[in-house]
Amino acid sequence: MHKVAPQAATEHAVLTHVMLDVYGVDFDTLNDPDRIGEILTGAAATASMHPLAEPATYRYPGQGLTVFLPIRESHFAIHTYPEHGYASIDIVSCALAERAQRAADYVVDRLGGDRAESDLVFRGFLEDREF
Fold first, then answer.
1. Does the domain formed by 25-119 have CATH 3.20.20.80?
2. According to the model, what pLDDT value does residue 127 have?
3. N or C of the chain: less Cβ packing under 10 Å?
């Protein structure tokens, strides 16, 4: 089971998962694989995370993208729905939660939507293990 934990408990979590929904994003932005790849790569750089490869992209027939960026710390993924002006983003990282949040803030800023909602979940609580 995943836990939404107070900041004080995060030192026992293995992963930070930022789940981000951005609404009101321009159709052309959400349908541009190069632009979305640049946003994910820029988010990694801003958060001092390390891409392992170029972004992998799948373009759906007609419109919409899935773009995945593997990083040394885990991965970033975005699924776009241009017809709805909506993007679903996952930022999963074993780095500090602050760095994952910095990456999320970068993505929101670059997508330029009207509204963003996010949840921060800490995963992999290993209470019996010393860190």
1. no
2. 67
3. N
Is 50 within 8 Å of 44 (Cβ atoms)? yes
pTM: 0.87
Q: For tokens 């999963």, name the residue.
A: 92
Query: SS3 sequence, the chain?
Result: CCECCCHHHHHHEEEEEEEEEEECCCHHHHCCHHHHHHHHHHHHHHCCCCECCCCEEEECCCCCEEEEEEECCEEEEEEEEHHHCEEEEEEEECCCHHHHHHHHHHHHHHHCCCEEEEEEEEEEECCCCCC
Per the DSSP assignment, residues forming a β-bridge with 77 are: 68, 90
Quick one: 125 exposed, middle or buried, by C-beta within 10 A (0-12, 13-18, 19+)?
A: middle
For the annotated catalytic residues, the residue numbers are: 74, 79, 94
CA distances from 61 to 35, 58, 64, 88, 113 (A): 18, 10, 8, 18, 24
